[in-house]
């Protein structure tokens, strides 16, 4: 229902979802399936970091794709591995439920129209080529009973765009009303319960232009930030033409507005060591959703947890290299997932090099053609060319790199590849935030705030301690569905007014 009142617009629904990425879409679909009327708000055109992602969902325990590929996996094996990554981010019971529900969660996504595939990658990689859609997306080889659990959406290139598009279609089929170019300013409460959202929304030509600019700016924001900032700056200028909007929520509000990696002051305040990386997200990942929840009485946690991605594969041969610090001392494990390597590099002051011998370099160069996707070619050119120095002895190669002398491995000549956080052009270091609002792990309700729920990177969840590829999207689906199912349950509410 839409009511116009003296220069202000009021919309009423059972459930209001702030943010239209994976978590917001899943919450909306589940709330609508429970019989609730649902309105979704998004500051831009929808998709957020989800649409820019690789479209990978971490799932296991015997998914249809694993069975078709002949992969042996179990809930117990999945849980045992993830406990080493998740640690105390969520309770043992929640992690168990996440693992037990994993295969059915992937089937639910397929029911919504998201396509997956059983073609198994035979090599270690940060992201498979278009020939493969099931792969080891974490550090499984470092633990017993390894199994490939990275389920990439079946699509060409990076698959997040298709992943989100199919969820968006499912959201609209469910009868959900989506209001784009609408920015949530604050939560409204009645008798201590969250009962609505005060917003600013664009209409007419400014809305159309804002949508075009935000869509055009999404990829440049990641890959060429000066252009991305300019396009989103123009979109922000158009927001001066927005009008007030109040959305009343009879049952509750779900915050699914992403993390805060685009808010550099907030990142530096909470994680001062994490500087110089590429903000993996959109300008909408500015912490606004988290701050709304805190202003309403919620608490945020794990805000110092930043995932730093430092991939040394593909080519897969490079995982045979040895990580060394500025003193030439060995550390870490190059076979682990890029986020685990990145975390170790940050602990060593952000500086690191990969020491390889002649055999590794020769095999790596031979693997480039078959193991790399087009978007990975810049990284590979850096790893095997611009970022590499070579010399006949470890003493000479260390002098060229300007580091201490490492212990030799393999056969000469030796090469050192600079894999520091600020290594150089062509080898960006993506970062994303993992902390958020503290929620009840059975319902997704923000602790201490009646009528308010949170999901995805706006909430503490399964991936809030450490990240492996696909775990964030899997958690968005898991926590989004949980919040949508519980917020739609019968309750008594008041009303918010303009």
Describe the structure concisely for a colleague:
By secondary structure, the chain is of the alpha/beta class. It has helices at residues 22-33, 48-52, 64-68, 75-86, 92-100, 102-111, 160-173, 204-223, 225-238, 264-270, 288-295, 338-347, 358-371, 377-386, 394-401, 471-487, and strands spanning 2-5, 8-18, 38-41, 56-58, 134-135, 150-152, 177-179, 182-190, 193-201, 243-255, 278-279, 300-301, 306-308, 322-324, 353-357, 388-391, 414-418, 430-433, 436-437, 452-454.
Description:
This protein is α/β, with parallel strands linked by helices and about 500 residues long. The chain has two domains: about 325 residues, FAD/NAD(P)-binding domain, CATH 3.50.50.60; about 110 residues, Succinate dehydrogenase/fumarate reductase flavoprotein, catalytic domain (Flavocytochrome C3, Chain A, domain 1, Alpha-Beta Complex). It contains 16 helices and 20 strands. The strands form five sheets. Strands 1, 2, 3, 7, 8, 9, 10 and 20 form an eight-stranded mixed beta sheet that branches. The protein has a four-stranded antiparallel beta sheet with strand order 14-15-17-16. The longest helix is centred in the middle third of the chain and has 20 residues. About 55% of the residues are buried.
Helices and strands, with pairings:
Layout lengths: L1 E4 L2 E11 L3 H12 L4 E4 L6 H5 L3 E3 L5 H5 L6 H12 L5 H9 L1 H10 L22 E2 L14 E3 L7 H14 L3 E3 L2 E9 L2 E9 L2 H20 L1 H14 L4 E13 L8 H7 L7 E2 L8 H8 L4 E2 L4 E3 L13 E3 L13 H10 L5 E5 H14 L5 H10 L1 E4 L2 H8 L12 E5 L11 E4 L2 E2 L14 E3 L16 H17 L11
Parallel strand pairs: 2-3, 2-10, 3-7, 10-20, 11-18
Antiparallel strand pairs: 1-2, 4-6, 5-6, 8-9, 9-10, 12-19, 13-18, 14-15, 15-17, 16-17
